[in-house]
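RECORD TYPE: inverse folding
INPUT: structure tokens
STRUCTURE:
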């Protein structure tokens, strides 16, 4: 007998070819097939079960994480999975683990900052997981201010070694994932000192634990920093603390691509910019942008499917009540998030290209695009994670009371996701980096140096400062060039206004500090322009499949116009559009929501998430929400007994006392 599909009618309404949309979402047919195969592999494996995760104690959760990581590694070896497939497998296992840092930061740090000899020595062991590493940068006293780190690595020419030391309490390493209980090694960031001179922060490969007994090596204090936000969630990760008491490592364990220390203790700075020490962060920020689209898509998939099942009010003549997805307020909250998921997917694809391009250039000693790559990764990491974190919470509210149940999947997704706004660079700190880059670009406008890449639009500042939006009717807002020009004009006008205000300060740094809230807004406007423009560029491509391109055009317009509506103050205050044109944009937005509506379920089906990965009763594919919620309630350990533990000690005496009091 065929299983019931509560969304069948919704799926029939779709006006586009779902299979082709799945390929667009995955990036290519090959990606789609790989990802689909790996997702099913994980979903069908009982070791990767995760429905009881939030019930586990921290210790049990951690052991479960070790078990899953070991099993994942076995599957990767047995099935001879490629690196790409292995990464997919770990992400579908969907439980933060030390392996994220080993593969995501330790290995990239050695690859990016190590010499070829260091690659030869360390990478084979790391690839085989004969050593497990983490990324130990942040300290108790400093995270954002990397130049403020206090751990020292003092070169001793007598022994040809570095002496690693934690001179103060605040110099204790604090937060690195995988450090607390697992890592045998770390890339440690410390101040390099030679001949009494401080050369700033550099990376060092340091062994922390014995490879036979897993005990900390002499001079090393290491442990977990404790429980974090939420149940389950990021508590599967052993974020750690680490102190060094004059720990000795050989000289060749300093990562020496950027600078070297010779046998005699001479510090040599190569032609490579010192910012390359920050290269791993650029890499990870780029991956975080793609991950944002996955997390956002996941929350939106849950909220959309549930909104189509849930009915409230409006029954006529005893007929069914209205599906909550048909309420305009629900649509105006949900559909922009759906559009944002697609927008972030495409900007993530583009950012991956940008990162690959900058990496190839760096290999050829061309460092010219590094500042732009830094600004783009920092800004887009900040913008996409902030939006996604807020969106997950919005999706929880869109699911009403049931969204608050753990088995909706949304509370844990929120808890596991929100630290992305902080790790890999606090989002405000990163936006200020973008603002610095923009102010520098504006200051060079008169110099004849032509802005390129994502700031190329500033080269047309003269036109953008005085252009007038030509929208007269709501449908005029559907013209890509009209949307693009409005976003460009807003970004350039906000940048130039801020630059002018900065010019009024005698000390530019004082001005920057004073105007930093405005500068953050400027950076956001610039990042939103990047996302809008990359979505529009995507639509220039040949996109096959009945109705697929049309749906993407609708989503792109929803994305752009909802931003315009949300930031109307900026657009009107800078004179880019009139209040009436703002009202027309809103009118058009409502029409677009009506076009999204029949396609909403198919648009989230295109994410191709398995029920295992979604981990949500409200978002399950078949929409059989009520029956599953009811069954699941009985599985809660509180329902193991009819009368709860503690009744005799605590409840009964109160109840009896009440009876006695009543009798008095
Ligand atoms: C339901 C369950 C679901 C489960 C789901 C599970 C899924 C899990 C899957 C995966 C998990 C993800 C795995 C990843 C986990 C990541 C863990 C996080 C790791 C970390 O957090 S590591 C630590 C990161 N730390 C930071 O990011 C620190 C932030 N600070 C900085 O980056 C810098 O210090 C700074 C940017 C703030 C700069 O400070 P400043 O002092 O001004 O800088 P200077 O050193 O003086 O340099 C200024 C100069 O350099 C330019 N610059 C700065 N950074 C860079 C760079 N990265 N690249 C290039 N250039 C850079 C800067 O613009 C200045 O240039 P200028 O002089 O103006 O031209
Ligand atoms: C779950 C998790 C995992 C992590 N994993 C790792 C890891 O594997 N390895 C590692 O090395 N680190 C790791 N970290 C640390 C992380 O990178 C830092 O916490 C992060 O970079 C933020 O730095 P901070 O904690 O010093 O924040 P702070 O800089 O102290 O931020 C506090 C507040 O001050 C504001 N602020 C700071 N500076 C400025 C400024 N210049 N202008 C305006 N406002 C400012 C911030 O916006 C924020 O509101 C992890 C953190 C978390 C939460």
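DESIGNED SEQUENCE:
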């Amino acid at each position: 007998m065929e299983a019931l599909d509560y969304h069948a009618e919704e799926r029939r309404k779709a006006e586009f070819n779902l299979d082709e949309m799945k390929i667009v979402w995955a990036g290519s047919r090959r990606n789609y097939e790989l990802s689909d195969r790996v997702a099913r592999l994980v979903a069908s494996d009982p070791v990767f079960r995760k429905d009881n995760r939030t019930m586990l104690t921290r210790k049990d959760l951690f052991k479960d994480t070790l078990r899953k990581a070991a099993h994942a590694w076995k599957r990767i070896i047995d099935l001879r999975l490629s690196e790409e497939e292995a990464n997919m497998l770990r992400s579908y296992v969907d439980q933060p683990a030390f392996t994220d840092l080993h593969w995501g930061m330790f290995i990239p740090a050695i690859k990016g900052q190590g010499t070829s000899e260091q690659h030869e020595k360390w990478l084979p062991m790391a690839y085989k997981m004969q050593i497990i590493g983490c990324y130990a940068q942040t300290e108790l006293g400093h995270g954002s201010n990397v130049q403020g780190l206090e751990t020292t690595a003092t070169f001793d020419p007598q022994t040809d070694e570095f002496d690693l030391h934690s001179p103060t309490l605040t110099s204790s390493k604090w937060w690195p994932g995988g450090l607390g209980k697992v890592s045998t090694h770390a890339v440690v960031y410390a101040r390099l000192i030679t001949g009494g001179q401080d050369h700033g922060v550099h990376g060092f490969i340091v062994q922390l634990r014995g490879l036979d007994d897993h005990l900390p090596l002499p001079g090393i204090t290491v442990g977990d920093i404790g429980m974090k936000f939420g149940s389950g969630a990021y508590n599967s990760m052993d974020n750690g603390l680490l102190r060094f008491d004059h720990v000795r490592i050989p000289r060749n364990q300093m990562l020496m691509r950027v600078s070297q220390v010779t046998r005699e203790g001479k510090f040599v700075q190569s032609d490579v910019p010192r910012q390359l020490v920050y290269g791993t962060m650029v890499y990870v920020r780029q991956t975080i942008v793609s991950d944002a689209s996955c997390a956002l898509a996941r929350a939106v998939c849950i909220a959309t499917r549930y909104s189509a099942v849930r009915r409230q009010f409006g029954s006529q003549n005893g007929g069914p009540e209205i599906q909550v997805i048909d309420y305009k307020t629900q649509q105006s909250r949900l559909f922009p998030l759906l559009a944002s998921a697609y927008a972030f997917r495409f900007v993530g694809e583009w950012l991956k290209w940008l990162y690959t391009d900058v990496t190839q250039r760096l290999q050829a000693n061309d460092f010219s695009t590094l500042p732009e790559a830094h600004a783009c990764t920092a800004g887009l990491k900040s913008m996409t994670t902030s939006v996604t974190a807020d969106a997950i919470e919005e999706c929880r509210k869109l699911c009403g009371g049931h969204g608050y149940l753990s088995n909706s999947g949304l509370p844990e997704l929120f808890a596991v996701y929100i630290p992305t706004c902080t790790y890999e660079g606090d989002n405000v700190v990163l936006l200020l980096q973008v603002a610095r880059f923009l102010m520098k670009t504006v200051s060079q406008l008169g110099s004849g140096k032509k802005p390129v890449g994502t700031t190329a639009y500033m080269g047309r500042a003269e036109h953008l400062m005085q252009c007038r939006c030509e929208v007269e009717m709501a449908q005029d807002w559907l013209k890509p060039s009209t949307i693009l020009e409005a976003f460009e004009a807003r970004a350039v006008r906000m940048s130039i206004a801020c630059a002018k205000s900065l010019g009024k300060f005698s000390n530019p740094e004082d001005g920057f500090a004073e105007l930093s809230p405005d500068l953050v807004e400027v950076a956001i406007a610039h990042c939103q322009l990047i996302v809008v423009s990359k979505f529009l560029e995507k639509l220039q491509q040949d996109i096959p499949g009945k109705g697929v391109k049309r749906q993407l055009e609708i989503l792109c317009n929803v994305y752009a116009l909802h931003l315009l509506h949300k930031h109307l103050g900026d657009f009107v205050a800078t004179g880019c559009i009139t209040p009436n044109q703002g009202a027309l944009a809103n009118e058009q937005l409502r029409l677009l929501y009506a076009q999204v509506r029949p396609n909403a379920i198919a648009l989230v089906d295109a994410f191709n998430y398995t029920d295992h990965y979604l981990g949500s009763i409200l978002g399950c594919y078949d929409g059989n929400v009520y029956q599953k919620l009811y069954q699941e309630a009985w599985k809660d350990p509180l329902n193991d007994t009819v009368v709860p533990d503690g009744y005799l000690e605590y409840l009964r005496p109160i109840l009896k006392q009440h009876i006695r009091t009543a009798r008095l």
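NOTES: DSSP finds 23 helices and eleven strands in the chain.
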